[in-house]
Amino acid sequence: MIDMIPVTIADEAIKDLYEEAFPKAEKRPWDWQLELIAAGKIQVLRIVKEETFFAGFVFYWKLPAFNFVEHFAIHADARGGGAGTQVMQLLEKKLGTIVLEVEPPATEQAIRRIKFYERLGYQTFPDTYEQPSYYPESGPLTLCLMYKGFPPAAANFQQVKDQLYKYVYTK
Asked: Is the full-model pTM beyond 0.85?
C-alpha cells in the first residue's frame, strides 16, 4: 500500500533521491530548494510503502489555475508493482488539475516516461516549452508540458507557461 504524507522538511532520504533521480539541469541547488520549501512555496509529499518504507517523494506547487508537479521520484527499491501509478492516481484525487514537465521523446527513457503519463490520461501540449535555467552558466532546457484535469476548453498553453514562469522560475 502506498501513502503520501505531507511534510514541511525534506530529510536526507528525500535529498539523496532528488540528487540521484534528476540531472543538474532539471533541479535547483538543494539550498535553494530548501528555502522554497521553508517559505511554503513548494509542497512536499513523502511517499511511503507499507506504512514505513521510504518509497519516494513529490514536490509540487499550488498555482492559481493548476498544480504543478515539479519533481516526482520513486526509490529504486520501490519501483515496479504499480507504485508510480498509485502515486499519480492519489495525486489526481488530491490535487485535481495537474501540469508536469517531461523531456522530449528523444531517448528510450523519455519515451517510456511519456507513455507512462499518457496511459494515465495525460496529454501533451504541442507547443515548444523552455524551462529557464537554474544555473547562470547554462541555457534554457527544452521540455514538454503534460497535463490532466483541465476542463476541455481550459487547457491553454500560454496561460500555463505564464504561470510557471511567474511563480516557479523566479527566485
From this structure: yes
